[in-house]
Design a protein that fits this description.
This protein is α+β, with helices and mostly antiparallel strands. It has 3 helices and 4 strands. The chain has a two-stranded antiparallel ribbon. The model has no long low-confidence stretch (mean pLDDT about 85).
Amino acid sequence: MSEILKVIADKINQQNGRLYFVGGLIRDKLLGLDNDDIDMAVEGLTFEQVVEIITPFAASITKEAVGGSFAVVKAVVD
């Protein structure tokens, strides 16, 4: 999983986006717990750009707009 995250982070960076790890992942890392649910926030890229970057790694993807300020991409990675 960490190799996939590195590739995704590199692709976001190459397009001048910013990737942040957020949510329960941070809490669990601080507490020394395992976590396979990884939440990320991306700034500087469009919704479509993020979907394009993640799609090659995902077994399934759902997309939903949340309000007018951001959208959510849910991806299941094998």
